[in-house]
Design goal:
single chain, 240 residues, alpha/beta, Rossmann fold, seven-stranded mixed sheet, two-stranded antiparallel sheet, 5 helices, 25% helix, 18% strand, globular, disordered N terminus, fructose-2,6-bisphosphate 2-phosphatase activity, His_Pase_superF_clade-1
């Protein structure tokens, strides 16, 4: 539908969480699509994250199917049998091809396009477009379900995905050219290279009825203004 006829007083809240610590994180190894597990510390971080969300209503969770993400969300969903869970490979981080398993020093972490052209590496442009597609699909599913009450969904993905999507929605310099500015920031949103494992980034759609949903997904070309508000993102002391 191009214009919604629904009436709604509720908002759509989207919580973004990142996986806990892995051994590759400790060893400064590029993971990409490597299917790594959490360390004992990472499993503890997942418990801390779940405790932060203990009183938070969650209606659905979309997640990268890699083991480190599955282990991270397990404490969140273990006592919420009613929550619908949707694994989606499109929520994986950027595929790094021949660089996976190599040192962080192989790429300039400040330049998201630095790995472009290496064997098997997913171009940064393609990665951002993939994030935009899956985000549009999630919005297309969730926005029409918002009624008089708020609806809250979790997107469990990888640090590079959260940062890249937010920068894309803001049309930040490293992610300009994909779309006009679609998001603004609240006073508790701080741009970071990646979120910490215990952070919960929150993006809010204050009026989901105004989002153009066509073919079951958000139609970026018909979006008016900046319908997304990044309420929380990272920590002030780690802001770029």
């Amino acid at each position: 539908m191009s214009e919604s006829s629904r009436t709604s007083a509720g908002q759509l809240h989207i919580l973004f969480v990142r996986h806990g610590e892995t051994q590759d994180n400790i060893d400064r190894i590029l993971q990409g699509h490597r299917d790594t597990s959490l360390t004992d510390k990472g499993l503890g971080e997942a418990q801390v994250l779940a405790e932060k969300l203990r009183t938070q209503q969650i209606d659905a969770i979309y997640y990268s199917p890699l083991i480190r993400i599955v282990q991270t969300i397990e404490p969140i969903v273990s006592d919420r049998p009613q929550v619908k869970k949707y694994p989606d490979a499109a929520l994986k981080g950027q595929a790094l091809g021949s660089l996976e398993g190599g040192s962080y020093d192989l790429v300039d972490m400040r330049n998201p396009r630095d790995a472009d052209g290496q064997p098997g590496v997913e171009l940064f442009e393609d990665f951002v477009r993939r994030l935009k597609r899956v985000f549009a699909q999630i919005i297309g599913i969730e926005a029409p379900q918002v009624g008089q009450q708020d609806r809250t969904v979790v997107i469990a993905t990888h640090g590079v995905g959260i940062t890249s999507l937010f920068k894309c929605l803001e049309s930040s310099p490293s992610c300009d050219g994909f779309n006009p500015r679609l998001a603004t920031r609240g006073p508790h949103a701080f741009e970071v290279r990646w979120t910490d494992s215990d952070d919960v980034a929150r993006l809010v759609v204050t009026d989901p009825t105004k989002l153009p949903i066509n073919g079951g997904q958000l139609d970026y070309s018909s979006v008016s203004g900046q319908p997304f508000v990044i309420k929380r993102w990272g920590k002030r002391e780690k802001a770029i």
